[in-house]
Amino acid sequence: MVLVTLNSCVNPFAPKIDNSIGTAKGLISDQFNVEGVFQNFQYAYAFKDTLIYSKLLQKDFSFSYRDYDLGADVSWGRDEEMKVSSGLFQNAQRLDLVWNNINSISGDSSKIVRSFNLTVTFNPTDIIYIDGRVNLTLIKEDNKWKILRWIDESNF
Prior knowledge:
Layout: H1 2-7, H2 34-46, H3 50-54, E1 57-67, E2 72-77, H4 78-91, E3 94-105, E4 111-123, E5 126-141, E6 144-152
Parallel strand pairs: 1-6
Antiparallel strand pairs: 1-2, 3-4, 4-5, 5-6
């Protein structure tokens, strides 16, 4: 009878505290390793988080891509990259970034070419699929990896 009484007093709306919370790896990396850069990049796109994205870019960051319509290479710095990314984050309903294989990596991990798939959903009838490669030059600053140079090698 005592056991039945004790068990019936358990409140299902007040469960025990789970002490294991916080022991698992979080969504945001500390960027102490190169994979953390890619993890935070994916997080920033998925959650359209400009703060996390800005922490990926070194102060002298440069982005460049080939504009096939103009027949020229186009490039810009960190400030313009943040404006462009902010506009993308605000205008897209959803951004799905998938990192694929690393095509090449230097011995010190400062130069990486990696393939990706990006799906940009503006609305249900306006979806863009981008497949390509990023050619990144990384630098370690304050013991964290950051992107110094990004050459976009996508099909877009």
